[in-house]
Design brief:
Layout: E1 2-14, E2 17-28, E3 33-38, E4 42-43, H1 46-57, H2 62-72, E5 76-77, H3 80-87, H4 93-104, H5 123-136
Parallel strand pairs: 4-5
Antiparallel strand pairs: 1-2, 2-3
Helix pairs in contact: 1-2, 2-4, 3-4, 4-5
């Protein structure tokens, strides 16, 4: 059972300006996980996510994989597990870290983002992601 409620968050854009953004928050009563959905972010459907994975897999060049994944996140959001599945399709550690940073804001269950760490081969990438997230909050 999920409980839906709306919250108003103040997100700083620059040091001296603020913007109001509405988010819908859901709490899964079985796992106590909090899921967010902003007005401009729709969760991937199962079929659209599978199509995205197939599209990324079909790319031969790392940069093309990254661009396709990034475009898909323009208006969609994903779970931490879905982000992890995408990261596993990248071959280059630097690309994984860059996409993990990019996808964090579009992740519905950010409290589970620690799962992303398993995709990295280097501790410096884990640390880089941790520092990036800490700077955001």
């Amino acid at each position: 059972m999920k409980v839906l409620f709306t919250a108003l968050l103040i997100v700083p854009l620059f040091a001296f300006s603020k913007q109001n953004i509405d988010f819908n928050l859901s709490v899964d009563s079985q796992t106590n996980s909090i899921y967010t959905q902003s007005a401009n972010c729709n969760p991937f459907t199962e079929s659209s996510f599978v199509n995205l994975l197939d599209l990324i897999k079909s790319q031969d060049v790392e940069d093309s994989k990254f661009k396709k994944a990034k475009i898909a996140f323009r208006y969609n959001c994903a779970t931490a597990n879905q982000v992890l599945e995408i990261l596993e399709l990248f071959d280059v550690e630097k690309t994984k870290l860059e996409f993990a940073k990019f996808a964090f804001e579009k992740t519905t269950d950010q409290n589970n983002y620690h799962l992303i760490n398993s995709s990295f081969n280097k501790e410096s990438s884990v640390q880089g992601l941790k520092e990036y997230i800490e700077m955001r909050y």
